[in-house]
Amino acid sequence: MVLLDQTRLPSEEVELVCTDAPALVEAIRSLAVRGAPLLGIAGAYGVALAAARGFDVVEAARALEGARPTAVNLAVGVRRAESAYRAELAGTGEPTAAAVAALAAARALHQEDAEASTRMAAHGVALLDELLPGGGHRILTHCNSGSLVSGGEGTAFAVALAAHRAGRLRRLWVDETRPLLQGARLTAYEAARTGMAYTLLTDNAAGSLFASGDVDAVLIGADRIAADGSVANKVGSYPLAVLARYHHVPFIVVAPVTTVDPETPDGASIEVEQRPGFEVTEILAPQVPVTGAGGGIPVAPLGTQAYNPAFDVTPPELVTAIVTEEGAVSPVTAEALAELCARSRRA
Ligand code: MRU
């Protein structure tokens, strides 16, 4: 299985080859492959890889789905390929046919994600036009939610890109997204390739940008949306939602229906991944010389403890709308989300 190693971007475009599930688990943990929809796709292909190579598929599936806890898409993707494998094995007793079935399930998920991305972009642009009829949108985004994390053009970034193509994006404000700089390294990389007008800012500059009236809407992705509409996304999303509410700016979440998890009742039930402290106490940019314990340049005294949650949770009352491939939900309520999921199951 060949992946683009996202830890090396934007300096280098390097392929990472995973020949078994443990290698893929490591790629997921190190964020070489990351972002909710892509984690689902990678997890499904990982099950197919284990099946094709004759490894223990159940063991591989459990290791893959446990590699990161917050993005529900990972478990959804893994289980889809595993179910296809098990069903075929139960029917034919043929491991080779079961491996082919797992691969077909992974390919189907990949294709569906690409299609969902196109539909989310269309619904998102329509919503922006409704909320901001004048055009010339100045959109703030956080983390990375473009084609690097998707079978298609992504989630929140795909909406900004569609607005750009329609001539309605004035500027994309890109939060650098400390500590691992997914905004600076990855979103700026993607934005530069599209030719859209974009500006990078430190996360803590967002407040003054709102205060000066330069943000028309916030667009972010999601790693898990609880049944009540609470949204887990990259740490730093919740403060943006608070800022957006104070400044009367729409805060819009864009995610495929697979990110909505009916099994997770509310925000407090979402497991937030805690990551190693060295990601905060060291700068881990790929081009810097390696010196610290985590492989980066120390920026804090040796032995400093760090608080490093990978995600935070935004309550539904701060979310203006959730845009999915099935349409937008606004206001965000448990009932509206449940109906959306039911519609998606019927489709
Ligand atoms: O830790 P990461 O880089 O995997 O976090 C990714 C995010 O938080 C994204 O915003 C989220 O997965 C949505 S991507 C469409």
Automatic annotation (TrEMBL):
Substrate binds at R34, G35, A36, R68, Q182, N233, K234. The record marks C143 as: Transition state stabilizer. It is an enzyme of class 5 (isomerase). The active site is at D223. Pathway: Amino-acid biosynthesis; L-methionine biosynthesis via salvage pathway; L-methionine from S-methyl-5-thio-alpha-D-ribose 1-phosphate: step 1/6. GO terms for biological process: L-methionine salvage from methylthioadenosine. Keywords: Amino-acid biosynthesis, Isomerase, Methionine biosynthesis. InterPro entries: IF-2B-related (IPR000649), IF-M1Pi (IPR005251), IF_2B-like_C (IPR042529), Initiation_fac_2B_a/b/d (IPR011559), M1Pi_N (IPR027363), NagB/RpiA_transferase-like (IPR037171). Its EC number is 5.3.1.23. GO terms for molecular function: S-methyl-5-thioribose-1-phosphate isomerase activity. It comes from the Bacteria. SUPFAM superfamilies: NagB/RpiA/CoA transferase-like. It catalyses: 5-(methylsulfanyl)-alpha-D-ribose 1-phosphate = 5-(methylsulfanyl)-D-ribulose 1-phosphate. NCBIfam families: eIF-2B_rel, PRK05720.1, salvage_mtnA. Belongs to the EIF-2B alpha/beta/delta subunits family. MtnA subfamily. Catalyzes the interconversion of methylthioribose-1-phosphate (MTR-1-P) into methylthioribulose-1-phosphate (MTRu-1-P). This is Methylthioribose-1-phosphate isomerase. It comes from Streptomyces echinatus.
